[in-house]
Predict the structure.
Amino acid sequence: GEDVEQSLFLSVREGDSSVINCTYTDSSSTYLYWYKQEPGAGLQLLTYIFSNMDMKQDQRLTVLLNKKDKHLSLRIADTQTGDSAIYFCAEDSSNTGKLIFGQGTTLQVKP
Amino acid sequence: DVKVTQSSRYLVKRTGEKVFLECVQDMDHENMFWYRQDPGLGLRLIYFSYDVKMKEKGDIPEGYSVSREKKERFSLILESASTNQTSMYLCATSEGFNEKLFFGSGTQLSVL
């Protein structure tokens, strides 16, 4: 079945770039998503990329998609303490019509 | 902006109690979902609904049921709460299948 994998934890210093990685299995996904969850809150859609694109940039966020390797990454430039959160990647499943989420990567930003 | 409202932010219940978690959306979305979130496991889909009175089991439906009597409201029911149902419960909506999800703030349920 479809699966989405992420590393569980990333720690960076304030001002550095953060790169959160994700691998997925469904090669026929149409969209891939990044969600952000701040402590004690629900998930907020951060950005998404259409599967026929290989890059999308939105201010400090850059999404890279390598369809051949089924690898998705989220780069946050000039990481701030307010970026500390859990980041989830998700793919839409062509088989089930639902989003499949990874386990979430906890980003810790040290001052 | 889409608003998804979950009725309780924190809930404490006793083992064996019947528990209702309510979710209301204001954007006339067809699809509504209930997930639970546990550390290291990510989000797991419990049930979803694609229309009024329609429901489908997700990946972990055991011990749960749902009700969707009106389009804007989707309720998750724990018939007899158990300690292993202590978790963060998240409601979400979408306009259609494979569409982006909009989440509520979550309900942290503790079953003692």
In short: Chain A touches chain B at residues 8, 30-31, 33, 35, 40-45, 48, 88, 90, 92-94, 97-99, 101-104 (CB under 8 Å).
